[in-house]
Amino acid sequence: MSTNETSATRPLSDVAGLALEEARRQGATQCEVDASVNQGLSVSVRLGEVDTVEYQRDRGLGVTVYFGKRKGAASTADLTPAAVRETVAKACAIARYTAEDPYAGLVEPEALAREIPDLDLDHPWDVTPEGAIELARSCEAQGLAVDARVSNSEGAAVSSQRHSGVYGNSLGFLAGYSATSHSVSCTLIAQLGEDMQRDYWWSIARNAGELEAATTVGRTAGERTLARLGARRLKTQRAPVAYAPDMARGLVRHFIGAISGPSQYRKSSFLLNAAGEQVFPAFIDMHERPHIPRALASSPFDQEGAATHDRELVRAGVLDGYVLGSYSARRLGLKTTGNAGGIHNLLVDSAQGGLDREAFLRRLGTGLLVTELMGQGVNGVTGDYSRGASGFWVENGAIAYPVHEITIAGNLKDMYRDIVALGNDVDARGGIHTGSLLIGEMTIAGE
User: Fold this and answer.
1) pTM
2) What whole-number distance in Å separates Cα of residue 199 and Cα of residue 229?
3) Residue 348: CB partners within 8 Å, gap ≥ 6?
4) Which helix (H) or strand (E) holds 137?
5) Which CATH code of 3.30.2290.10, 3.40.50.1000, 1.10.10.10, 3.40.50.11930 fits the domain covering 10-227?
6) Does residue 3 register a pLDDT over 60?
7) How confident is the model at residue 1 (pLDDT cuts 50, 70, 90)?
8) d(CA 445, CA 386)
9) Strand-pair category, 150-169 with 70-76
């Protein structure tokens, strides 16, 4: 099976085919290969001066072979026929000496993708280094022009990347596609007396034509930085806590980690055996939509060649199942969900519809709006959650003043059940699409 070949993936298909044939010749009972080429341009400027210009082109081949239930893997950056054969030989040598794993092996044949949809992911950008530098300069300059107090910068950056990859296995699957990712970002510093604050903004898209204008990115970074001047600390208390959309994505990511196959079979999850349980309030739904054209986490098949498909992961707050590749599925006595390598476009929404910003802040009333998180204080086994935070204090449904140097704490299991509102300000700059989330009450530690 070979589909969606382009001039970029055709040579990789030849490399993958050679590796599969060599593995058969060397006696492997099963084999899978992943061949890829990544290329891109990244530039950064600071205070109008060029900081870095990087052009990158990486190639790679990963080979995994199975001798019965014994597994061996090897990789190389050399895609010449001799290097491919040598890499396969090394993988086979490793497999002959590893311990048997009863769950090892390729994905089940019936799970393989039979049709490979074109998801419109490949949009090369012919930007030159000079053009990228000018975009970065205009981005930064627009941010610095917002206000005289925005007086310094950590830089602006422009990046254009293209990944071409082919996956094949000894079940007859061989397919690949190319995908691009382009971005513009800016981080600025504002100062008023002894008070110094920083903030940032960025835009990312498959198609450069869908990026926010570089000047808009810079202006937004400048406005966000300026708004943080005069930040205060809060007294320790319990209060409602709202997460801005890009912060709410992290909350959902902890949920995905807890329901992933490895966390479940290792019994290292605060949501162990939670399928069928009420995890969120009844107004919360989560849908996986892998085939959204040009979306950042769209994919026609997962890392094992299994078909990706639309799925309702959470219905009316109830967890419908886990996020599985074939190995973890076998460990749990289940079937793969086409998620080897992760989730593909998870949409968080509500049958009631999300609240607009004004209604969301009114629902918050008096409490904390989090716009930045620091630290890694999340325990995936117990769900205990403690993160450094900054953002804004809200009083009577209106932003009162910026806050910093505080810690927010709770337990994720309780926090999920205590979600009381969802905003309609959905941030789609990643694999999880969600609006703002409001938690009914958390501990805020400050003075």
Assistant:
1) 0.94
2) 10
3) 248, 252, 284, 285, 286, 422, 432, 433, 434, 435
4) helix 129-144
5) 3.30.2290.10
6) no
7) very low
8) 10
9) unpaired
